[in-house]
Each structure stands twice: as C-alpha cells, then as structure tokens.
C-alpha cells in the first residue's frame, strides 16, 4: 500500500494542472496548430516552385516565348514613338501659330491699330470657317440698370442703403 500511495495517479496530476493553466494550454495548442499549417503550406509551395524550375523545359518553347515577348515590346515601343512624333508635330504647329500671332500683334501695334481686336477677329473667322453652323448675334439684351443710374449719387438704391458703422468706441452708458 505504501508503494501505491507514493506513485500518484496521472489524473490527480492533470486535473489541477488543467484547472490552473487550462486557457493557456488551449491557446498554445491552437497557436502550434496554426504554425504547423502555415509551415506545411510553405513547404508545399516551395516544393512546387523548385520542381517547376527544375523541370526540363522545351528549349524551343523558351526561345519562342522570348521572341514573342521581344516582338510585343518592339511593337509597343514603335507605337509609343509614333505617338511621340505626333505630339512633337502638334507642339511645333502650336508654337508656329503662336509665333505668327505674336508677329501679327506686333505689326498691328506698330501701325497703331488695336491688336487685341484683330487677333480675336482672326480667331473668330477661323472658328467660323471650321464650324458649319451659323451663329446669330444676341440682339435682345436688356440693360442691367436704367440709363440714369449713378452709383455715386446715392439714389436709386431702394431698400439697400448700407452705411458704415461709427468709428471709435461705442457710446453706451456713462
């Protein structure tokens, strides 16, 4: 009997241990499970990538793939070069047009004419020649104010007679 008492039963050791550290053990088991799953996925993906790179590939297929990549890159570069050439051409045309307008403005200034009106009419004629619709000038404009309106007279304001406040301290109580 003395020997059976000296060797305690396993349940008597596990019970207090689980009662004391049960939650910690549960979280530790879940963490270990997640780490093992992650490592197994990583090992499987490394095995597939090494087998794919180590596998014997057809050299002709590799050469064809590289040639097709090079051809597509060359096509894309040619398209980009063509777009850049068109853009440069448009920029040169715009600069030439601006330079021509500046020369016209300078010539009209030298002659004493109104250079702004001339440039605007030139633009309007160009716009009119490019468009097919005929634009009618607006003739039924109403004047904003009556012809006898003078803002400095103080008349005709109606209900909006604003005056600035007094200067200095307020004159309250004394």
UniProtKB/TrEMBL annotation:
A GO term from the CC aspect: Derlin-1-VIMP complex
Q: Where is the composition biased (Low complexity)?
A: 45-55
Residues of the region (Disordered) are 44-75, 95-174
Its subcellular locations are: Cytoplasm; Endoplasmic reticulum membrane
Task: Give the main localization category.
Answer: cytoplasm
> What residue intervals traverse the membrane?
21-39
Basic and acidic residues compositional bias, start-end? 64-75, 95-114
Keywords of this protein's UniProt record, alphabetized?
Cytoplasm, Endoplasmic reticulum, Membrane, Selenocysteine, Transmembrane, Transmembrane helix
In what way does this protein cross or attach to the membrane?
Answer: Single-pass membrane protein
Determine if Electron transport is one of this entry's keywords: no
Biased composition of type Polar residues is found at: 121-134
User: Is Magnesium one of the keywords UniProt gives this record?
Assistant: no
The record's Gene Ontology biological-process terms are: endoplasmic reticulum unfolded protein response; retrograde protein transport, ER to cytosol
What is stated as this protein's family in its record? Belongs to the selenoprotein S family.
- Put simply, this protein is called Selenoprotein S
Species of origin: Hucho hucho
